[in-house]
Inverse folding.
């Protein structure tokens, strides 16, 4: 199952919203928010544009925003300013009396799209032939509802970049080896931090349906899905060498979705919230090169003018799919909700939602 099996087909935004002045769009959003009051809740992901994040009722990472949505029982309409897998998670965790909307249905995630359910089921069949029942699956929350449901059915759980080490430990206490979906870099960095050797990790390539391994199969402990974040993979060893040469005193902090060699050469690595907190707790005058999404880096730079902060990659651009959520789409979405329209609703199939919630709940129970 893919994204379009679980959502209403997208409707093109009318041209009038594209031609409205920025100030007019802002005023429209403010007025509708005021009229809808507590019936409306707008969660905004850290990577959103400033023009959108200014209207967010809560900001955070994808799972935290879904949890905020579930806790907000008064909200009837949840306009999720993020990407489709995040809105799916919000729909899974909220009640049937709440409706989740995505302002632009084209706001997807390249990483989540690197593991579809057909590829995953095919991989599981082949890996079971190789490893028997010695595996347990884990999936990063940056995955589709169908993948979360698959993991839930096979007794696995979801993970976040904040709790990945705890969840990998949990999995390996129950089974000899694990399949980690869909981000190979987060899986590799996490397993390495837990003392698992790189050669004990294999990579499953869903395009060729093959296992890439350096050792005999019985010595493999972690099977990494060959997926990645198209933003974080653009931070390189060369970027680090350049920063070290230009700014020897600068701290380098990166997200664990970066490649292993980049994380190894950095001073700090952690989730989006970890990066935000580390900068917030740093001393005025300190210097930082940040390896994560550009909208967030620019926001941090503006928040802390008394620190020297740059992007680790000076040529980095914002997450293109996340940036499909813009002010015109937000204004149009709110307009449609106020008029009683049913455009851009995210609705996960009930059976998929049930199994996906199992995977999410196993993780939340360990929080």
């Amino acid at each position: 199952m893919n994204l379009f099996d679980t959502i209403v087909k997208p409707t093109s935004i009318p041209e009038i919203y594209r031609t409205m002045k920025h100030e007019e769009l802002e005023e429209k959003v403010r007025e509708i928010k005021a009229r809808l009051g507590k019936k409306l809740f707008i969660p905004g992901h850290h990577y959103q544009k400033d023009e959108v994040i200014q209207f967010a009722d809560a900001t955070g990472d994808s799972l935290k925003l879904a949890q905020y949505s579930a806790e907000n029982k008064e909200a009837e309409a949840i306009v999720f300013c993020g990407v489709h897998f995040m809105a799916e998670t919000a729909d899974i965790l909220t009640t049937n009396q709440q409706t989740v909307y995505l302002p632009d249905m084209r706001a997807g995630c390249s990483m989540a799209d690197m593991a579809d359910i057909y590829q995953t089921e095919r991989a599981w069949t082949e890996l079971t032939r190789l490893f028997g029942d010695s595996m347990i699956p884990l999936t990063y929350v940056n995955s589709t509802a169908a993948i979360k449901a698959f993991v839930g059915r096979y007794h696995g759980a979801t993970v976040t970049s904040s709790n990945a080490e705890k969840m990998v430990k949990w999995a390996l206490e129950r089974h000899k080896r694990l399949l980690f979906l869909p981000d190979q870099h987060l899986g590799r960095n996490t397993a390495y931090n837990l003392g698992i050797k790189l050669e004990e990790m294999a990579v499953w390539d869903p395009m060729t349906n093959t296992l890439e391994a350096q050792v005999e199969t019985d010595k493999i402990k972690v099977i990494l899905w060959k997926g990645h974040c198209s933003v974080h993979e653009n931070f390189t060893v060369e970027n680090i060498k350049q920063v070290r040469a230009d700014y020897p005193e600068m701290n380098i902090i990166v997200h664990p979705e970066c490649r292993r060699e980049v994380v190894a050469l950095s001073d700090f690595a952690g989730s989006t919230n970890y990066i935000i907190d580390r900068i917030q707790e740093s001393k005025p005058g300190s210097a930082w090169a940040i390896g994560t999404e550009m909208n967030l880096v620019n926001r941090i730079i503006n928040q802390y003018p008394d620190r020297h902060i740059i992007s680790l990659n000076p040529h980095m651009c914002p997450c293109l799919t996340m940036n499909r959520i813009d002010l015109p789409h937000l204004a149009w979405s709110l307009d449609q909700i106020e008029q009683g329209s049913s455009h851009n609703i995210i609705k996960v199939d009930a059976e998929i939602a049930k199994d996906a919630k199992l995977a999410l709940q196993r993780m939340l129970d360990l929080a």
About this structure: The chain is about 40% helix and 15% strand. Residues 350-365 form the longest helix (16 residues). The chain has a mean pLDDT of 94.
